[in-house]
TrEMBL record:
Molecular function terms from GO: ATP binding; protein serine/threonine kinase activity
InterPro entries: Kinase-like_dom_sf, Prot_kinase_dom, WAK-like
GO cellular component, as recorded: plasma membrane
Name of the featured protein: LRR receptor-like serine/threonine-protein kinase
Organism of origin: Acorus gramineus (Dwarf sweet flag)
Amino acid sequence: MNSQCSQASITVGKTSVETAIRGTYGYLDPEYLRTSLLTEKSDVYSFGVILLELLTGRLPVIKSDTFRYLVKYFVTHVEGGRLVDLIDVRIYDEGTMEQFQAFAEVAMRCVRRESEERPTMMEVAQELRVIRRLAP
């Protein structure tokens, strides 16, 4: 994975940072692409993409006739009731369908297009701890 940090400075009391658009496509928050503002929810989006990579074994940018990004590919398949087709065969025996479903739901919330609809990282961490306890 090749990623770049943007050149930015943080002012006390600010909740966002203005910067020139930099980063690795596939991980970039759609709002950041529109506004050039990084927020805490931008990190949540990128973390959600990593969760999708872990679950599917796919890279964030897909070379396909239909889909370009893992997020769109994943959301379309899950909404079509095809989560089981997305789970990486290398991890299939490592969890239960209940865990995979819950993990997918957390990831889907992280990659919502609008930042205010995404959870905080604290909420994500708590939900992942709950999923881990679902293990048989």
